[in-house]
Amino acid sequence: MTLVAIPLFPRFTALDAVGPYEVMQRIPSIDVIFVGHRRGEVRTENGMLGVACDATFDEVGKPDVVVPGGIATRKLIHDDPIRNWLQAVHATTTFTTSVCTGALLLAAAGLLDGLTATTHWRAVDLLNELGAHYVPDRIVEHLPQRIITAAGVSSGIDMALRLTELLVDREAAQAAQLLIEYDPQPPFDSGALAKADEATVARANEYLRARK
Q: Which positions fall inside the DJ-1/PfpI domain (predicted)?
């Protein structure tokens, strides 16, 4: 069995974690576990949703990793337990991956030094300050270094499908895509900063300021 660990922390973004979970838990050869500083419930950035950590970092030593993002990542870049855990487990992962601002935690752990990477468009400057080189791609792969980063929130589903292909095979990834009926046909085309007009960006920033 392949074990995939998704670390959780207070004020994580739900879909960053649950999107990859929904993809990979469909595959019989993959186990998914939520880990954290302590066992028990962790609530999302708006406090509306709670998800349980079933193990602590100390209890999960050799997984593959999907690191979600969230408002709290800006503070967690200084958190020794999660940085030390990422450094330790990366030595034996098949792949270490991130979604959204989870890339900041990989960078803070020194795993993105000198590499191109992607993250949420609001975290670009901080990612660069932490030693990575931001590129505006939905998924960025460095397979020799066993690193994959995904952009904001929904891109975690795409990344998880690619990760499933790498861990199992293409047919497994396609089967997972069918099982979750992932066939995006959005009614708008404003899902990337380059595509959004000024009014849309202003509204998005307004909503982000309101939830801090």
A: 4-165
